[in-house]
Input
Amino acid sequence: MKTTRITVYFCPYKTPKDIIFTFFHEQILKNKKSALNTKVTFQDFSARTKKMTVAHAIKVINKLGVWGFCVTKNSKEKVIHYWYKDRKNIKLLSNLFAHEYSHAIFGHSEKLACQCGLAAHYAIKYMQKEKLIKV
Ligand SMILES: [Zn+2]
Output
């Protein structure tokens, strides 16, 4: 069996604004004067995309409590950019990392990544319920 080593780097952000501005960098630059009012196509963790302003996307992320995206540096190196509000919210974090990992490692589509994220979410929920883990 042929195997490929993939290295995944992690890039944490301090605020929803920081990560949104990185993600929509070019679109925001084109519209520098009204960066927050620039319309973008935003995607949450359920594979739904919506047109909204940058300001609104920041609000959505803040409400979600977690958000991230995966960037391909080259075929062997991927970077997961992420932000989270509450490090104790293990369900949301497991969803985020499983989602982005499935993009990074397996090259999964958005729909599959969402399913992986949800699977991790429910696994954690089950383990908490059964007291298999203490979080
Ligand atoms: Zn995704």
